[in-house]
Amino acid sequence: MYSDKVILSGSDAPDAHALPFVASLGFVSRRHVFSDCLCRATEAELREVHVSKLNDIQDVMAARPEWRDNLRLIVLDETAAETLDVVQARWLTRHSGAQFACAYSTPARAARLMGNPAYPDPLGSLFPLDMGIDGWVSVLKLCLTGHHYVSPELLARPAEEVPQEPDHAERLACLTPRESEVLTLVADGCQNKEIAARLELSENTVKLHLRNIISKLGVHNRTEAAMIHAQTFQQ
Question: What average pLDDT does this structure show over 211-227?
């Protein structure tokens, strides 16, 4: 299971084209952009990877060498990426081989990152936070194996012409009060049994609410719904 604390792991160097048997991945954000639900889903899909949440790069620098040596990918939110200390980031890349990436909510902000000194070295990858769990896992695996990925929407036009993302608040407004309560608990990492207990509902009723939420938001699963909630209320 993922941890919000650093984890001791092995120190074997990764092959450039094969996911290491054990690797560490750090999500860096002070705004809780990376929800517990997202972290658990990421670890479930990438079974060779331990996921940790950190507040900033200083936390990564202060971690024990045993953990840093196994670090393969550091994913920043937009705020962390905009304030990335390039010297520290390059030091980590040289000493651990870790890649840096930004999971963004606003394309225009991400496009501007491509014009700052952190891109493409060390911040070589930029991709949307709400790309869907299948795409999310595929891109993370690509980055974990030493490659870079930049979302096509950032390459299609200059930064000032990149359109803003759809207003997720409008999509969430279509939910009933009870559906909103259920989604909030999902985004907090609660499972159906716990949601049912907190809201004094049956698990079947919770499942029905989740089906309605997924349908109304136009997403594929609870993880994608939770990601939309996080982007709307935790920025």
Answer: 86
Residue among 199, 191, 193, 176 nearest 226 (CA): 191
CB atoms within 10 A of CB 147: 14
CA dihedral 69, 74, 80, 86 (to 10 degrees): 60
Task: Round to whole Å and give the CA distance between 52 and 3.
Answer: 5
Q: Is 0.85 topped by the overall pTM?
A: no
Neighbours of 4 (CB within 10 A): 12
**Three-state SS for 72?**
strand
Return the DSSP state at 13: P
The DSSP symbol for 164 reads P
In one letter, which amino acid is 88? Answer: Q
Q: What is the pLDDT of residue 3?
A: 45
Give dist(CA 148, CA 196) in Å, integer.
42
For the chain, give the number of residues.
235
Whole-number Å distance between alpha carbons of 59 and 193: 34
